[in-house]
Design a protein that fits this description.
Length: about 625
């Protein structure tokens, strides 16, 4: 009896376990017979650890500090290179100080360190250099190059020193490749697919405009094969007829003598895994995936601007794009399988990634110092996304005033720059981030909406844009703040434009707004010119100026704004201003009208006659 009872319990237990791991799916067959099918609800795990490429290597990191980010190991297995994050800023040619990264590059710096495996001795190679995203050895194995944050660093392991350091500091390198002989590096810039060539054997530098070299090497494929950008000879007349649509370069696979073995489309080579290849668009927008180099047909993965892209274990690849949350400086780390199908999209705080030498994890360049374990993430997508959102929320959802101010500033700059670079007129965002104010009078909301109404962007055909902006100057007193924002913005049409904006901000009803462009209300020049403008207004009301047009009218200052001569554009420094544009609020027949009046420094700040058209222009 006991045995029979025990047997029944076992059967019931098995049935219960089976019901927990499967569900019944009922379908009607073509013969109208009800068919019941067991469908498993257990999610299959993803395993990529057994599918490796020879370029990935295991490094014993037990001797490294906990904060170390491993980069590579020397071919002779004597030295491990790694980086540690630091607040220190090393040698740089940047003339504009970065107080706070606002949108785009987070400007995280690191110390680059070499560890002798046998002795344990550490050698700091470079201090305060930008976060490293790329690391490549030359074919000989005696030189290694590191690149990140538009900085290239080259180290000679035999001489134990940096090479051409002073020259490289002034060259904004975004990507590079070694020559087949291992003596030279071919570089890329953000606006040049082929940049400078550095020969480390003879110490010579060759700029792209000084040479007609056909091949710029970008990657080593193995077996004496190389990826390169080939400059194509394009007839100027035919190029003009095509409207500039003929490709002037393409990605090719060559042998060591430069013979082209295979060709791909126009773009910038970024990485390979076995027979698969990744390349971004020529201007950085778009990502093409070639699953098999033997059948070079590409699949477009995204049209967005791609900050970084790398292959990892198993032929999976990771790339980063901007997040569309304009108030936060965050990014989306996208993970795709070896077929190019997206498997995860994880929010992170940095745009650049460093893949661990074993190919299994990625470090980000963000302030949260994320380490994304690829296999764990693929098997726990929802959990990882939730955890990341919680961590990011603790940074950006804080109640302190600085966080609120920065969020409003990001939103305001996005509103302005997406119009400038992509002709997107977001009036709702203008209401959210801009406001007119008094004491002193400023018309930020009027300025941005009038710009929308008056102008068209030069880049109407562009549908994607990206910004890389930072705060270079800032002062805050209570409910007011003055901020200078610098940087660059780009669009998918291939255009780039510098950013320089001096903004006045004000807090109202617990929210921050931009209330003025280039108004500098606390400056001596603004105060002196207000005295002058007050006198001009009195003369206008008395009929002494502009043929008495404004005699007897109520005229008030709406805003005093400063412009510089080049272009002309709004000033970021009041002392470099050549013009002053004044908005005048004039009461005409019971209706308030806005005029602009321009004062020129060259004419001792004498006023031009006020006009009511083209108000957003000087």
């Amino acid at each position: 009896m006991n045995k029979k009872f025990t047997f029944i319990l076992c059967v019931l237990a098995l049935m219960l376990l089976s019901s927990c791991s499967s569900t019944q799916e009922k379908k009607v067959s073509p013969t109208n017979t009800l068919v019941t099918k067991n469908v498993s609800t257990v999610k299959p795990s993803v395993s990529i650890l057994n599918d490796t490429d020879t370029r990935f290597m295991d490094i014993d990191t037990t001797t490294l500090p906990k904060i170390a980010i491993p980069l590579t190991k020397s071919p002779d297995n004597t030295t491990i290179f790694y980086m540690e994050r630091t607040d220190k800023v090393g040698k740089t040619d940047d003339k504009t100080k970065i107080l706070k990264a606002l949108k785009g590059d987070t400007h995280q710096n690191i110390n680059l360190i070499a560890l002798n495996i046998s002795t344990g001795k550490k050698n700091i190679i470079s201090e305060g250099t930008p976060f490293i995203s790329y690391c490549k050895w030359n074919t000989i194995g005696n030189m290694v190059a590191f690149c990140g944050g538009e900085r290239l660093t080259v180290y000679d392991t035999e001489k134990n020193k940096l090479l051409l350091e002073d020259s490289l500091i002034h060259d904004r390198v975004t990507y590079f490749g070694w020559s087949p002989d291992g003596n030279s590096i071919y570089t890329e810039h953000s606006n040049l697919i082929n940049g400078t060539i550095y020969n480390f054997k003879d110490g010579k530098t060759l700029h792209c405009y000084e040479t007609d070299i056909r091949l710029y090497y970008k990657g080593t494929y193995g077996n004496n094969r190389y990826f390169a950008t080939e400059n194509l000879i394009v007839d100027e007349v035919e190029q003009k007829k095509s409207g500039g649509r003929l490709n002037e370069s393409r990605t090719v696979l060559t042998d060591s003598t430069g013979n082209v073995l295979k060709s791909l489309s126009c773009g910038r080579f970024r990485d390979y895994y076995k027979n698969a290849v990744l390349q971004i668009g020529e201007s950085g927008f778009g990502l093409q995936y070639y699953e098999d180099l033997e059948k070079p047909e590409s699949r477009e993965i995204t049209k967005e601007y791609v900050y970084d892209v790398k292959f990892a274990l198993g032929g999976y690849f990771l790339y980063t794009v901007k997040s569309y949350d304009v108030e936060k400086n965050i990014f989306m780390l996208c993970i795709c399988d070896d077929k190019g199908n997206e498997k995860a999209r994880v929010p992170v705080t940095g745009p650049y990634i460093s893949i661990t030498p074993d190919g299994g994890s990625a470090y980000t360049s963000g302030p949260l110092n994320e380490i994304i374990d690829l296999e764990y993430t693929l098997n726990n997508v929802e959990k990882v996304i939730h955890e990341q959102n919680e961590k990011i929320g603790r940074i950006y959802d804080a109640a302190n005033e600085e966080v609120k101010l920065f969020k409003a500033l990001r939103g305001a700059m996005d509103t302005y720059l997406k119009f400038r670079m992509a002709d997107i007129k977001d009036y709702d965002a203008a209401v959210k981030y801009y406001i007119n104010s008094e004491n002193p009078p400023q018309m930020g909301f009027f300025d941005i909406t009038t710009t929308f109404n008056d102008r068209k962007s030069h880049f109407i055909g562009s549908d994607c844009y990206v910004t890389d902006i930072f705060i270079s100057k800032m002062s805050q007193k209570g409910d007011r703040a003055s901020v200078v924002v610098n940087g660059i913005c780009r669009n998918s049409a291939g255009a780039g434009s510098g950013v320089g904006s001096a903004l006045e901000m004000i807090k109202k009803d617990s929210s921050w707004y931009v209330t003025g462009f280039s108004t500098f209300p606390d400056s001596k020049k603004a105060k002196d010119l207000k005295v002058k403008v007050d006198k001009i207004i009195k003369d206008m009301e008395d009929g002494k100026l502009f043929e008495g047009k404004f005699k007897g009218m109520d005229v008030r200052i709406g805003q005093i704004q400063f412009w510089q001569m080049s272009d002309p554009t709004l000033s970021t420094n009041v002392d470099h201003s050549n013009y002053c544009k004044v908005y005048l609020k004039v009461l005409e027949g019971g209706k308030e009208m806005v005029y602009k009046m321009v004062l020129s420094k060259e004419k001792s700040w004498a006023p031009s006659p006020p006009v009511s058209d083209r108000l957003s222009w000087l």
